[in-house]
## 1
Amino acid sequence: MKPTILDVAAAAGVSKSTVSLVLQDSPLVKAATRDAVRKVMADLGYVYNAAAAGLRAGRAQAHHMPAVQSAATIPISCDLGDPMVAPFVAALQRVADARGMGLTILSNAAQTGGRKITTRFSEAAAPNCIFALHPMGSARLQEGLAAGQATRHLLGLGAGPVAFVGGQEHLPIHAQRMRGYHERMARAGLEPLLITGGDDFSFGKRSLAKMLADYPTHRAALCINDQVALGMVDALRERGIPLGDGFRVVGWGDTPAAEALGLSSLRPEMGKLAEVCIDWVLNGGDRQHEIPLTLVRRQSSTGGA
């Protein structure tokens, strides 16, 4: 595999940004650092693709670069407002960097003519550029299956009826999660309880207060994301209700805050999703890829168990 800019940065003991500045002959880099980075490039056999870099900076002209196949897009179905989109894009960037590729994302193709934009870009693009186009559908996370798994986990702990908290029912991905929750509750012979209309920390706090006041028999919640779940956790702690033992909560996204604060959460396999998308670009194919999520069990659902 060809060395990448990340390999150069690691071997030289500098940041990726510093290597980029060296490649641009920036005067901001000290001479000693510049010489050291260039020596590492020579030792590793790193070759700088100026054409691709020019495209990313908006400086290159179409006739200076070879064309790529028109299929150089990453169709991935997602809601760009979802908090998990940023980690997905970061995962795409890591995979692209590891393969020595550039990454450009075009969003909301259906409403902005993204297909035409992609075609125009691809006519000018270097072969090592990937274009991600949202939303389409060659790869997707198993949202409904994951929601059912988390609901079953909470029911299995004897928490009683489980509420689904947060989200907007008209958003497709939120609807997928709610559908998985509905199906699992139906199997258990229980009525679903949806508390929707928000997706942030404060909504989680308000929802916890609503559940305690209006639905006292519900002592568990599956949340649309970690922000809502952490709001509920904070409200529980304010009231002195034992986390996990007195009320059980599962979030969605497995953010760093979830791990730090003991929040059980559904972890999307973003690295796998990114690999699938990029392999699709390189190798083609029309198969629908289903990417799983992993339920990470922590104190907020398991309590002291």
Note: The two ends are 46 Å apart (CA to CA).
## 2
Amino acid sequence: MINILFLFLFYFQTIYTIPEHAHYFLDAKRIYNIEQTQQELFKLGFKKIYFTTQDNIKICGLFLDKSSSEKIQGTIIYIAGFYHGLKEGMASFYSLVIDQPYNVLLFDARGHNESEGDFLSYQGIKNYGQSEALDIIAAIKYIHSYNVTKKINPNIIIHGICSGAFNSIKALTQLSENACPECKAIQGIIFDSGWFRFEDVAKTTIYAETEKRFKKSWFWWATKPISFIIYQIYNLLFAQTHKAQPDIYESIQKINWPIFFVHCDNDPYVSIDPVKKFIKECNCKYYWWIPHNSHANYHMHNYQDYKNKLLEFFEAIT
């Protein structure tokens, strides 16, 4: 009876510590209803914007400027992963700061949804990772220019998940190497469920995604052989090109901004081991190893836990 009471109190506390408008964005099924999620974001003040990359790809984003109603502390740019790669999907992360004094930019990765470019094609998958950093650079430049023009707090925080974290490091390396004026505005990076090279994630991602799709079907027994076949096809068509891309081990060590590493111990898509090894070797200050088996969505399981850690990092860097 006492255990039931404690469970009820925990549930009650969790529900009522989540801001009212955040509940919609924490429903994984609802946020990928793109049209409806956009409407919910529009209600909260988001505007649809476009910016163009250095290689002339038009990127579509949703931008929230709260500076007319409150004193903001900066702008958070959310960088989506390989799939789904959608601005609407990143609304779940926005829910963590929905009641905080930050402007927010969500955008579709190139080749996804309303952004131009190639993604789900042979060439799109083969060349993935070669140009995505340009999307992030363009997003940073857009926000920096906007903040200067509007005389808004210039601080920028980058929050990348999975391949979005990988591509963020590549983007920030390019900016710092060119001593771009935007560099002074960047305050820190969240590296959530990220990886350092394609070899770290290709096999585990294929096996995890196949299991996810087949484990509740009549073909659950064929999950491993199907995964094996898909992985061999990947090796035949894409592995050589992906392996030729430089990893980010050296780049990430050259970055001077604070990085907050977030990773679940039992992430089925991206092993935590390379990240832990890097942290140990480089004595990184900010990291959080989560005893959970999710990939880039722990915040949807434990909203307040993730939010507290996030705000602690923000307080430390701004």
Note: The radius of gyration is 20 Å.
## 3
Amino acid sequence: MPDDDRAFTVAVPGEDFSSEPASTDDASLADGPVRGRGGDSAITRVLGILDLFTPEAPVWTVDALVERLQLGRATIYRYLRALCDAGFLVPVAGAGYVLGPRFIEFDRSIRMADPLQHIVPPFMAELRPVVNGAQLLCAFYGLRVLTVLQDNTDPAITMSMERGRPFPLFRGSPSRVILAHLPTYQLRNLVLNHQAEITAAGLGRNWAEFRDGMRAVRKNGYLAASDIDKALVGISAPIFHAPGSVAASLCLVRRRENVTPDDEIFLGRLAIEACRRISEELQAFRPNAAAAPAFPVSRVR
């Protein structure tokens, strides 16, 4: 997509973003999600507004956006109109705005198009009585890992890694087992650009320590960890959409008091075997006897 203001005139007829005058307001955005998109064009700022809507702050008013983003009121109104016209936002009582129905439509499209969400549920159902806890299917998107499916038969289990909540690539067994199976050049890039986060996560103080730790995970075939939810143990194995190309992980979860060392080994082997079978089906998946399904290409930097 072109990184200029004119790109938005196609999507929103009647809104000439390219004619927006330069101003000190637009040039001095506040730090936050808007900054995270790496640009200062109109489309960057419009998309950045969506990042402000969180479970902790689900409603935003024009006044609040003006104060947060340090943009002119007319600019904010123009951006909100574009987002509302596209269904990304809807107005609510009290002059506020919330996320709109377009995201629900996107969610349905993702569920229907994602091969993992067609293939994995029967495996989860098969594992359910043996796991006697919870299961997470987690997908890999660059520096973030998201839970896309979850299954829980233990009402005492409450997980932080709920569906749709992003977690960093360096925390939690679902993330780290994916991390360990990335190509060496990507692991090197991560060390070059994220050494502080890697060290803080206990994954190594330098390339040699990080490399050796990732190699140990690959050799073991699964990873058990409790660094996110201390009362739980997550045991994860990788899923591959092509030989050597990791796409996701399956995490088997139990309460810590219900996991003995022997249980951990048993669940680890169970996860490895389930993921082997899932990977085989995923690599052979042809929904319409046509070309192979497309998988996101996750680039780490």
Note: Residues 236 and 251 are 4 Å apart (CA to CA).
